[in-house]
From TrEMBL:
Top-rank taxon, per record: Bacteria
Pathway: Isoprenoid biosynthesis; isopentenyl diphosphate biosynthesis via DXP pathway; isopentenyl diphosphate from 1-deoxy-D-xylulose 5-phosphate: step 3/6
Gene name linked to the record: ispE
Active site per UniProt: K11, D136
Name of the protein this chain belongs to: 4-diphosphocytidyl-2-C-methyl-D-erythritol kinase
E.C. numbers: 2.7.1.148
Residue span, GHMP kinase C-terminal domain: 201-258
Organism: Pseudoalteromonas byunsanensis
Keyword Transferase: yes
Domain GHMP kinase N-terminal residue range list: 66-143
Job description of the protein: Catalyzes the phosphorylation of the position 2 hydroxy group of 4-diphosphocytidyl-2C-methyl-D-erythritol.
GO BP: isopentenyl diphosphate biosynthetic process, methylerythritol 4-phosphate pathway; terpenoid biosynthetic process
GO molecular-function terms, A-Z: 4-(cytidine 5'-diphospho)-2-C-methyl-D-erythritol kinase activity; ATP binding
Annotated keywords: ATP-binding, Isoprene biosynthesis, Kinase, Nucleotide-binding, Transferase
C-alpha cells in the first residue's frame, strides 16, 4: 500500500498585532509567520479498510476532536480511490505551546492525503478547507514564510534570512480561546502602514499571558540574557533569535530542568512541502 512520511513543522510568530475584533468573535490581526526545521512526524499509509486510524502521541484528545482526524474526514468527499488511511503521529511539539502543533498536523494531513487519495485539490482549496479547522492552518498549507492579515488567511509571502532559534516551553498550557476572549487583551493596535521591522513590533498577547501565567514571564526574563526575546502566538513557548547553531545550542544546554526546549533554523519553505516535493519526484 502507498505510504508517505512528512514533517509537521513548528512555526513562530515573529510578531503578532491585534487590530480589531469582528462581530463574529474572530480577531483581525497582523503577524509574521516563519517555519522552523523541526516538528512532529506523521506517517500516512493507505489501507484496504475504509476507515481513518490514528496512532501515536495524541494525548487525551478524543478522536472526533483531533485536528488530524478532522482534516482526513474533510477530504473524504474528494477522494478518487476507495481506501482508508492509517496515520502514525510522533509528537515533538508541545500542545498549547503556540508553535502551531495542532494546526501544522492538520495541514500536513491535508497535503499528504490530498496525494494519497488523489483528491487533486489545489493549495488554495486545501487552505479554504483548513481555515475551517483553525486560523493558522492555511499558512502551513501554503508553506511559505508569510506576512498574514485578516484572521490569518490573507498571506503575503516574504523571504527572510536564515536565523537560528532556541525555543523554550515553560511547561504551562495556554488556551488560545481563553486569551482571545479575555477582556484585558489589547484589540486596537493600528495597522502597519509601511514596512515592518521587528524592533518596532511586538506580540499583543504577551503582556496578558505573562500576567495569567507567571512562568511565561520567568522564561522570557531568563532568555533575555542571550538576546531579544519574545513569546510566539498566544504562548506559552518563548524564543530567542541567534546567529548560529552553536549559540542556540549553548542556550539550550543552560536551560533549567523545569523547562523543555529545542533549537532549529528558520526556513522560508515548510519542510513538509520540501519533503512532499521529493516524494512526488520519486513517484514519477
Amino acid at each position: 500500500m502507498t505510504s508517505l512520511s512528512l514533517m509537521a513543522p513548528a512555526k513562530l510568530n515573529l510578531f503578532l498585532h491585534i487590530n480589531a475584533q469582528r462581530a463574529d468573535g474572530y480577531h483581525e490581526l497582523e503577524t509574521l509567520f516563519t517555519f522552523l526545521d523541526f516538528g512532529d512526524e506523521l506517517n500516512f499509509t493507505c489501507t484496504q479498510q475504509d476507515d481513518i486510524e490514528i496512532e501515536g502521541d495524541t494525548g487525551a484528545i478524543a478522536l472526533e476532536d483531533n485536528l488530524i482526524y478532522k482534516a482526513a474526514v474533510a477530504l473524504r468527499p474528494f477522494r478518487s480511490v476507495e481506501t482508508g488511511i492509517s496515520i502514525k503521529l510522533s509528537k515533538k511539539l508541545p500542545m498549547g505551546g503556540g508553535v502551531g502543533g495542532g494546526s501544522s498536523d492538520a495541514a500536513t494531513t491535508l497535503l499528504a492525503i490530498n496525494q494519497l487519495w488523489k483528491c487533486n485539490l489545489s493549495h488554495q482549496k486545501l487552505a479554504e478547507i483548513g481555515l475551517k479547522l483553525g486560523a493558522d492552518v492555511p499558512v502551513f498549507v501554503n508553506g511559505k514564510t508569510a506576512f498574514a492579515q485578516g484572521v490569518g488567511e490573507k498571506l503575503t509571502a516574504v523571504n527572510l534570512p536564515q536565523r537560528w532559534f532556541c525555543v523554550v516551553f515553560p511547561n504551562v498550557h495556554v488556551s488560545t480561546g481563553a486569551v482571545f476572549t479575555h477582556p484585558d487583551l489589547p484589540r486596537n493596535t493600528p495597522r502597519l502602514t509601511s514596512g515592518w521591522q521587528l524592533a518596532n513590533t511586538n506580540n499583543d498577547c504577551e503582556a496578558l499571558v505573562k500576567k495569567l501565567y507567571p512562568e511565561v514571564e520567568k522564561t522570557l526574563g531568563w532568555l533575555l540574557k542571550y538576546g531579544p526575546t519574545r513569546m510566539t502566538g498566544t504562548g506559552a513557548c518563548c524564543f530567542v533569535e541567534l546567529d548560529c547553531a552553536t549559540a542556540a545550542q549553548r542556550v539550550l544546554d543552560s536551560l533549567p530542568s523545569c523547562w523543555q526546549g529545542f533549537v532549529a533554523p528558520s526556513t522560508n519553505i515548510s519542510p513538509a512541502h520540501t519533503q512532499l516535493d521529493s516524494w512526488l519526484k520519486m513517484q514519477k
